[in-house]
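Give me structure tokens for this 465-residue protein.
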Amino acid sequence: MKKILLLLSFFCLGIITSSAQYTILFNFNDTNGREPFGSLTLNGNALYGTTYYGGTHGLGCVFKIDTNGNNYKDLFDFSGSNGELPNGPVTLFGGKLYGTTAIGGANGDGIIFSLDTNGSSCKDLFDFNGTTGKYPFGALTISGNLMYGITNFGGIHDSGCVFTIDTDGSGYKDLFDFNGTNGSIPDGVTLSGSKLYGTTNYGGANKMGVVFSIDTNGNGYKDLFDFNGINGQYPGNSLIISGSKMYGTSEYGGTHDSGTVFAIDTDGTGYKKLFDFNGTNGKEVGAGGGTLTLSGSVLYGVSWLGGTSHRGCLFSVDTNGIKFKKLLDFNNSNGAIPGGSLTLSGNVLFGVALLGGANNDGVIFKIDTNAIASVNEVKANGGIINLFPNPNNGAFTLGVNSEELRANYSVEVYNELGQKVYSQLSTFNSPVSINLSSQPNGVYLYKVITENGGLVGEGKTVIQK
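Here you go.
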């Protein structure tokens, strides 16, 4: 439950561009917010989100920013009595933003709020009191004039509940209380038809979490699937639904106990573990409360930790579990500990990292999925290029033997952000000695290019010092 325990200024530094692939749109600095938490909500050319801390009172804020990184605005600052520590995305409906805060409000157990998109008219719609729920978490799902959500704790058994409430703040109803046996600490619900689907972080037959469904009127609760460690452990996010299939992640469990991506039918059958994380390619997926993002047959997601620098990473995997790609390693300078979900617009994914960046207070970023393919899908060089040793400590030799190269050529090396860190001209069939010992550990892409700009071959090398 790092989203509860994570306790780690507004001066606009402008847009910092790392490459055509990955761009830091904004660096938080505590005054303007700290530790952005949850997914970004897209409306036209504007992105809306929340920070867990920071702002005028240090208790979090709601913000707005253009998709190009301009015009950041702190729309509203929480002060405790009107809510404290917003810990999920805001949901846009009817020209208003709806969300929750983890604590604060009249009873200190969190609130549901609404806010105009310009930051005015913030209303405390409902104050939780423990019995009605405690520590609301994640996005609110809206259908008609009804909102649905969950609380991590509270309810009759203090194991969390599913609730509904009108968008005007009336008609609150505790639909279902978890008791441990049927699940504990729910992490979000997704609406499909007349049913809500979700996961619990703990509880169930093996005390490792469940997938559940429940009718929108609170009847017909079903424990659809119990995790057992091998098939995943502690699912920590909402589910994404496509047709009769649901996709999700678990924070732990699987072959390497570093988390999984899974698929399951909406009736609870057909469970399939699509991918096992191993730490290097990600760890604790979904710990930040995010869902997977589906585009066609590709799922995009973030891992809270893991990756080359153990600061989290971005990934994609096909819905059949094939073609997994680690898209980006966070290394603190480009952000650290990504949370929430990725928001897709065209070919661009938008997201947040809780920490790292210029002030170590978190960043808003975007990544171009078109550029991802060009950087990460290396071409086979058919034995033309020989790089050794690989892995290495930053010092290596690259040899080229090709009939295409009867003249000079150049060698270029790029880091994981797509930044060129090395370029060297060489003559036909002469090996190139390269020293990148000043560069950090990680995966690097090298390219061999003819004088006319033609690509002879490319590949990857790993620096491990």
